[in-house]
Amino acid sequence: MGCISSKQSKHTPGYEDPVLLASQTSFTVSEVEALYDLFKKLSFSIIKDGLIHKEEFQLALFRNSSKKNLFADRIFSLFDAKRNGAIGFGDFVRALSFFHPSTPVYEKAAFAFRLYDLRHTGSIERVELKEMVLALLSESELELSEDIVEAIVDNTFKQADLNGDGKIDEDEWKEFVTQNPAILKNMTLPYLLDITMTFPSFVMYSETNDTDIII
């Protein structure tokens, strides 16, 4: 009995079997096990309760636990599937799987749509897109004029809002990303194929065109 209890005590709250998680995601069992080692480090970095809280998430993601940013809030919200203010291991793996190179494009597109649907209305409105563009620019340390930001938003809606109702629904979004696959490039983190002990960054610092920064 003592051996079983000792083994179980090593698991963090919300721990799920790596074999089960591998069957639900794009990760292999060995990759899930590597992610668990990473998860434990992150979940004990500040609050030390075996769950990843927003401060720990932001510290890992942006090297800053207190900086306020809409992009970080949205990413955390989508990882926090149970909406309890903390991320358990299972939710961590399932959400991170959307960024795996082997994950189908349609799944990545659906995740990105939820990211931009700030008010959970089932569509992306102009103000939501602009807010996210500004948040991404802030985290990427890029400064663009108001005119250029407006041009990015205008161009996106011109291409994506097919019925001209002033918002982008999920079907329009799917068509938009099908015609513009580069938009989802930040939804793929190549090093998830070879997971290390460094938390993957969702803000890409590669050469980026102004019109590509929205995603």
Automatic annotation (TrEMBL):
The keyword Membrane applies. It holds the Pfam family EF-hand_8. GO terms for molecular function: calcium ion binding; kinase binding. PROSITE patterns: EF_HAND_1 (PS00018), EF_HAND_2 (PS50222). Residues 67-102, 104-139, 148-183 form the EF-hand domain. GO terms for biological process: calcium-mediated signaling. The keyword Metal-binding applies. GO terms for cellular component: membrane. SUPFAM superfamilies: EF-hand. It is found in: Membrane. Keywords: Calcium, Membrane, Metal-binding, Repeat. Its main location: membrane. It comes from the Eukaryota. Acts as a calcium sensor. CBL proteins interact with CIPK serine-threonine protein kinases. Binding of a CBL protein to the regulatory NAF domain of a CIPK protein lead to the activation of the kinase in a calcium-dependent manner. Belongs to the calcineurin regulatory subunit family. Homodimer. Interacts with CIPK. This is Calcineurin B-like protein. The lineage of its organism: Eukaryota, Viridiplantae, Streptophyta, Embryophyta, Tracheophyta.
